[in-house]
Amino acid sequence: MDQIEIHWVWWVIAAVGLGVLEILTLDLVLLMFATGAVAALVASLLGGDITVQVLAFAATSTVMLVFLRPFLLRNLRRRTPLVETNAAANVGRTALTLSEVTDRSGLVKLAGEQWSARTDVTGLVLAADVTVRVLRIDGATAVVGPLQQPAEDPPDAPGTSP
Q1: Which residues contact 4 (CB under 8 A, 6 or more apart)?
Q2: What letter does residue 68 receive in the DSSP assignment?
């Protein structure tokens, strides 16, 4: 068999390999290249030389990446809710202070683990054994705040003096 006659085999291998890798990554990039490999395979089977095959691969992959992938990602994200994982999943959870938490230091128990913690308000001190809410994660430190915002002092009643 002549080398030119078996180019289609390489395109089949490329399409299948890229398809398998896409299943592992789920990023919809390799799928676009796999589609380009299928287009090159068709060009090869129709008798196109290697230049036509490579151009078919490049053009199809580029069109798929530029036009189809954004559309597919938009629809995929619309149907699949975003589930936060790792540290981002802790934002909004409640935690128990293990020590006094200030704007500089402290410890909380969050999701069964001990975390370093601090408040985001200068001068705010949260006592030990108080339930707090995680506002954000800053590196390996949980930034926390009171579970309930402190109620403002009611206005002075008429006729009373301070």
Answers
A1: 49, 50
A2: I
Strand 113-119, strand 141-146: pairing: parallel
Place of tokens 């078996």: 6
Residues 6 or more apart whose CB falls under 8 angstroms from that of 110 comprise 90, 93, 95, 117, 134, 142
Q: For residue 159, what are the contacts with CB-CB under 8 A and spacing of at least 6?
A: none
Name residue, tokens 């676009």: 32
Separation CA 90–CA 58 (nearest Å): 43
pLDDT tens digits, 49-90:
999 999 999 999 999 999 999 998 888 877 766 666 577 788
Question: Which residues, other chains included, contact 150 with Cβ-Cβ below 8 Å and sequence gap of 6+?
Answer: none
Report H helices in 3-157.
7-25, 30-45, 50-63, 69-79
Q: Report the distance separating Cα 22 and Cα 31, nearest Å.
A: 6
pLDDT tens, residue by residue, 92-114: 899 999 999 999 999 999 988 89
Residue 4, token pair as written in the block: 């030119």
